[in-house]
Amino acid sequence: MAETETETENEESNQADNEPSSEAEKDSSEENQNSDDALSSQPGQINSDVLQNIPVTISVEVGRTTLKIRDLMRLTQGSVVELDRIAGEPLDLLVNDTLVAQGEIVLVNERYGVRLTSVIPAADRVKNL
């Protein structure tokens, strides 16, 4: 009788080892399954919800310049660095370092914003990738 009880305990222990031991592991397993479902809902296509949730970096470029290292090392507080843009020229709006639009600076509730004055057509943006 002792052998039967021990075998039953071992079987129960083995079953417990094969099951997720915590809620976090169960949640993680479900998230992985949901992620797989979102990416492979239709072969060869990406789920638009997944695509729309990818973060991108947007930056606004006022202008550029090139400096020699010696000139860079001489910069101090109050130094002025001249840029290649003329005052009043549109600023470049870049998404992940790709030019997508141009615009002008505006204030929105005491924060800077950009009013778009021209948008680069999608076909042209794809060519520049």
Q: What helical percentage do the residues reach?
A: 25-40%
Radius of gyration, whole Å: 29 Å
Low-confidence blocks of residues: 1-11, 13-22
| Average residue pLDDT | 78
Total count of helical runs of at least 4 residues: 5
The 3D shape can be described as elongated
- Along the chain, the helix and strand elements come as HHHEHEEEH
Q: Main beta sheet, described?
A: 4 strands, antiparallel
Q: Provide the CATH architecture of the largest domain.
A: Roll
Distance between the termini: 74 Å
Total count of domains: 2
CATH class of the largest domain: Mainly Beta
Within the CATH hierarchy, at the fold level, what is the topology of the largest domain? Surface presentation of antigens (SPOA)
Strand order of the largest sheet: 1-2-3-4
Oligomer: single chain
Structural class: alpha+beta
